[in-house]
Amino acid sequence: MKRGGHPPFSFYTWNDSRMQLSRYLKVYPWQNDRDLLLLYSTRQASKILIKSEIYHLAEKGMLSPTDESLLAELGMVVPDRLEEQKSMMGIMDDLNSKNKILNITLILNLECNFACRYCFEGDIKGKYYLSDDTADHLINFISERFTGTKKKLLIDFYGGEPLLSIRCIKKLSKTLKSLVEARGGSYGFTLVTNGSLFSRKVAESLAALGLETVKITLDGPAYIHNINRPLKSGAESFDTIIRNIKETWDTTRIQLGGNYETDNYKHFVLLLDYLIAEGITPDKISAIKFDPVSKYPEKYASEYMGGCMSLDEPWLIPASAMLREEILKRGYNTPAQRLSTCVVESSDSYVINFDGTIYKCPGFVGKAGFDIGGIKNGLKKQPSPYKPGMWKNDECISCSYLPLCFGGCRYMAFVRDGEINALDCQKSFLDAILETMIKQEIKYHVSAEGH
């Protein structure tokens, strides 16, 4: 997109091409200029500013060859809208066939040194760890699937708290790194950790084995975080995490997350200012993203009764827009809007519990009826309980938001209904916020390819 001045379009000649506007296109006014429109392709995450008269020519299929070529390259005009919709029906098959990464989320244990107030694993926590025998079966499971078509193995070490199993991380990484490199591939891993055990010594030892990214949670400033995420002993954790971030930022990419609620999200701005004051500046953090706490399904026991059940809750619109603006305003990166697919649709993504049971999403670990097999005996042949392809219906396939939603989050549908029997449609949420988010990306030069 050209920022400033007028886009380089020709206005005086056209061919009767009859190219049609894409089904997956959003059109927004540009500031106070009636002569300009902002176009955004939800399928390609492309955006451009054009004169309104060019858009009206596109509506009629009367673009100049130059304009038609550019808008076609951006995915904003297509030869046939019906054929475009049909092609979307097979997009997951296409993405899966091109995917060169075998992605494993490995739950090393169900024990944690924190006692988070809203933990969604609360009813399954305990002193449960990946055994040596299960680790051996895991290596065999990966070996069978890391074939010649795969170029990278990416492990997301998860818990509980994965750093309580650091010896296992090191042992597995050494073995798997050797295995995939012998087959011409590469090995990398990430950590989803509370950050309390991520010391300089730990970071350096893991970086040498392939650590690429660490995801750490900070629930706002200290006075909120320490209530929501204390140690099991009741001690505060905020200062320890901040110290560890300061000591390790140069060893690997660090991403920060945070979980907010309706009564505290405005306080998260203070966390951003605190980070900068402490020298944890945008050049030292890969990305920051804050998300609302999800409500726990009512059919499962939990002391925590807060959180949200869907993105349609009215307070989430101003909260999401404000927090994203404040992150970007201070120079931190945050994920751009782009084509997004749920892990349940990926044929080469697995969530493996400490006992070898296989799931498709971490939110369903331990939930009866949601395992898809085990690493010892293989995958089940029965239909997936996650119902991939639920979005393959007339309403979803014709929706301009389909590439950003694909029927929404299965776990949010589960939170709402206690089972997966309907879509988690995000149309209302995207109607209310997407324009703001796209204009934020333009204002702060956020690239969809960069995050």
Structure explained in plain terms:
One of its GO terms (molecular function) is oxidoreductase activity. The protein is α/β, with parallel strands linked by helices and 451 residues long. It folds into two domains: 20-85, no CATH class; 90-451, TIM Barrel (Alpha-Beta Barrel). The chain has helices spanning 52-60, 65-73, 81-89, 91-98, 132-145, 166-182, 200-207, 222-228, 238-248, 268-277, 316-329, 394-397, 402-405, 410-417, 427-443; strands at residues 20-21, 25-30, 33-41, 46-51, 77-78, 101-107, 152-158, 186-193, 211-217, 253-260, 287-292, 349-352, 357-359, 373-374, 378-379. The strands form three sheets. A ten-stranded mixed sheet has the order 11-10-9-8-7-6-12-13-14-15. Strands 2-3-4 form a three-stranded antiparallel sheet. A two-stranded antiparallel ribbon has the order 1-5. Helix 11 (316-329) packs parallel to helix 15 (427-443). The longest helix is centred in the middle third of the chain and has 17 residues, at 166-182. The model is unreliable at 1-16 (pLDDT under 50).
Mean pLDDT, to the nearest integer, reads 91
**In terms of structural class, how would the helical and strand content be classed?**
alpha/beta
The SSE string, one letter per element, is EEEEHHEHHEHEHEHEHHEHEHEEEEHHHH
Strand content: 15-25%
| Quantity of strands, as a count | 15
Give the spatial strand order of the biggest sheet. 11-10-9-8-7-6-12-13-14-15
Report the CATH C-level class of the largest domain: Alpha Beta
Query: What distance separates the N and C termini?
Result: 18 Å
Major sheet characteristics: 10 strands, mixed
Q: How many structurally independent domains?
A: 2
Percent range of helical residues: 25-40%
Task: List low-confidence stretches.
Answer: 1-16
| CATH overall fold name of the largest domain | TIM Barrel
**What is the helix tally?**
15
Tell me the CATH architecture of the largest domain: Alpha-Beta Barrel
Q: What is the CATH homology-level superfamily of the largest domain? A: Aldolase class I
Q: What gyration radius follows from the Cα positions, in whole Å?
A: 23 Å
> What is the global morphology?
globular
